[in-house]
Design brief:
Blueprint lengths: L1 H25 L25 H5 L5 E2 L2 E2 L1 H41 L15
Antiparallel strand pairs: 1-2
Length: 124
């Protein structure tokens, strides 16, 4: 009975020491300070719209727990901004297309110049 208690106590002490050493070595999370949200090692083109290949080519820094959250947040913010700009452009182009379509419909309804409601005679 005493040997069983000693064995359990030994396992608990060794487990506790391993946990303590692991906690001290690995730390509580990322070992690097958080990145500045306005700057990132990720690069997207600034002189042209972002393409799908640009997004596919992005490689984020891998840390012990996965990707750096600040880099992922930065990338998502950039993509959101690009999508907003494209949505605005699409809406503006659709509005122009609708205006042009209405102008064309109005032009189709009007009689050609010189043709009135009197059967095409100009003397009336």
């Amino acid at each position: 009975m005493l040997s069983a208690l000693v064995s359990v106590a030994t396992v608990l002490v060794v487990g506790g020491l391993l946990f303590l050493v692991g906690s001290l070595l690995l730390g509580r999370g990322e070992t690097q300070p958080p990145a500045d949200p306005d700057r990132s090692p990720l690069e997207l083109p600034e002189d042209r719209p972002v393409t799908a290949d640009d997004v596919r080519g992005v490689r984020m820094t891998v840390t012990v727990r996965g990707y750096r959250m600040t880099e992922v947040d930065w990338l998502l913010e950039q993509l959101a901004r690009v999508l907003e700009e494209r949505d605005e452009q699409v809406a503006a182009l659709r509005a122009r297309l609708d205006e042009a379509g209405r102008a064309m419909d109005g032009a189709d309804d009007a009689p050609p110049p010189g043709v009135g409601g009197n059967g095409g005679r100009a003397d009336a």
